[in-house]
Amino acid sequence: MTTEPLLDVRDVAVHFPIKRGLVLDRTVGHVYAVDGVSLTVQRGETYGLVGESGCGKSTLGRAILRLVDPTSGQIVFDGTDVASLKGEELRRMRRRFQMVFQDPLSSLDPRQSVESLLLEGIKAHGLSKGDAADGARLRELVEQVGLPRSALRRYPHEFSGGQRQRIGIARALCVEPDLVVADEPVSALDVSVQAQVLNLLSRLQRELGLTYLVIAHDLAVVRHVSDRIGVMYLGAIVEEAPSQDLYDDPQHPYTRALLSAVPVPDPELEDRRERILLTGDLPSPAAPPAGCRFHTRCPWRQPTRCDDERPQLRVLDGSPVGHRVACHFAEDIRSGTLQPHRVDAAPGDDVLAGGDVPQPPGSVTEILGH
Q: Could you say which of 60, 166, 258, 270 would form a disulfide bridge with 145 (CB–CB 3.0 to 4.6 Å)?
């Protein structure tokens, strides 16, 4: 792994205009889907991007591949700012980064055989070496992803969900990319099939030297495959750390809320662990809160600072692994100087009604709300 990252995303924003009117079609606002994201992905590593639905993680992945155009910022891939590329230059660069889409059926053309799907990418990028060589390459590809050679003559509807996802992976690999963005690659699959696909991705990474950006909402999936993890909330990354460090020592209250929702198979640990119940809905990305985006749901909220100043993602003092957090009071929270407090339930909120929540010995119970 070199010190120069393969992918360097610098303050990228993706804003979609909100238009009204049949004739004038005027812009009346914007959806701030991605709003100032910076991250780096080193060669050969897997970077996991997590967050709840609507936080902008899929839009960021598509912006990195220029499937949607960024509103501002830089996307530097192997020293080249792809955000500024157009036409033929962009087409040539696209061979080096590919995407595995969330839905393995709708992302495949039902009128094309697997052979036609794979050949299309090879020929589009000028990688064809004749019928015999191309045929050998296709047979090698389907075997790499765990499918029989006979799969080349079949159509997407003839396969199961897991097999279709393998075809999607083969299509991404057919042009020999350096970076693969996997957008929820196993969310539509059964649990047993998820494990097979994740193991396949790990094996291909070792064999081909691939770099992954894995987008998911399932923290168990991301933990299994990722070297580093970034947590997104409302268009911005609020915490980033090596995978094990993030799970062992989460700092941002939103990260802690996400981790508290992951099931634990041991009943004793499940009863004693930290409980964080997020109330209220995710604010609209068309009208995000001023200041800290999470302050409307955070128990550590300090009205003057949190409501007015947007925190920057910075490395925690004394962190040997580059653990970054976007929180005004991350150091105080880490040291225990700033303690969580109970947030009163809104009228009709059954989750928080009925007095104090029992606190098991040895754990901290945090109830987050407005």
A: 166
